Amino acid sequence: MTSVAEQERGSPASGKPRASGGDNRMKMLEATMKRHQYQADALIEVLHTAQELFGYLDNDLLLYVAHSLKVPPSRVFGVATFYHFFSLKPQGEHTCVICMGTACYVKGAANLVAAVENLCHIKSGETTPDGKVSLMTARCLGACGIAPAVVLDGEVVGMLTPESLTERVKGWVS
Predict the structure, then answer these.
(1) Which of 28, 85, 119, 124 is 20 to 30 A from 93, alpha carbon to alpha carbon?
(2) What is the CATH number of the domain that holds 102?
(3) 148, 158 in Cβ contact below 8 A?
(4) pLDDT the model gives residue 174
(5) pLDDT in the model for residue 83
C-alpha cells in the first residue's frame, strides 16, 4: 500500500514533486519551503504546512522535507516525534487529546483517558478501526487553570469529568 505522500510525489531523492492530477498539495508545500528560502530553521513551519496539507507526516514526506531543506532525516524525524502537534500516522475523523501534565493528572486526567478508552475500545495513541476517533495524550497543553484540559477536535475544553467527556465523545462513536 502506498502512502499519501508517495501518491502525490516522486522519490524523495529526486527532490521534485510528481504531477498528481490537479492536487496542489506538493506545490503548496514547495511554495512554503521556497518562501523560507529552503532554510533549515524553517523546519517546524514546513512540517506544520505538510501536516495541514496531508493530514499526517509519513516517512516519505519527512524524507522529502529533509532532502529539500538539506537537513539530516534524523533531525526531521526528531522534531516530528518531539512535538505533540505532529502525527506520523493518519488521525481519525475526530480527535481527543487529553493533557497529562501535573495539574491535569492530579485533577483526574488518567480517569478521562480510561473513560474514552472504554467507550471507544482503543488505547491512547490509537484510532478506532472505523477511523472515527483518535485518542491521544499530551505532556502539557498549558491550560492548567482549567484542569483537567482536553482538546476535542481542536477546541480546548476544561474541567471535564469522565462522564461529561464520555457524553461529548459518544456522538463520534458509530
Answers:
(1) 28
(2) 3.40.30.10
(3) yes
(4) 66
(5) 87
Report yes or no on whether pTM surpasses 0.85: no
Q: What are 34's three cell numbers? A: 521556497
Q: Which residue has the cell 501535573?
A: 102
Q: Which of 35, 50, 82 is the last residue of a domain?
A: 82
pLDDT for 121-161, tens place per residue?
A: 999 999 999 999 999 999 899 999 999 999 999 999 999 99
Same domain, 162 and 129: yes
The rounded distance, in Å, linking the Cα atoms of 122 and 135 is: 8
Angle at alpha carbon of residue 143, lines to 122 and 154, rounded to 5°: 50
**Cα angle vertex 89, ends 88, 95, to 5°?**
105
Domain encompassing residue 73 = 4-82
Residue 161: phi and psi, rounded to 5, are -105, 165
| Type of residue numbered 11 | S
Q: Are residues 160 and 112 in the same domain?
A: yes
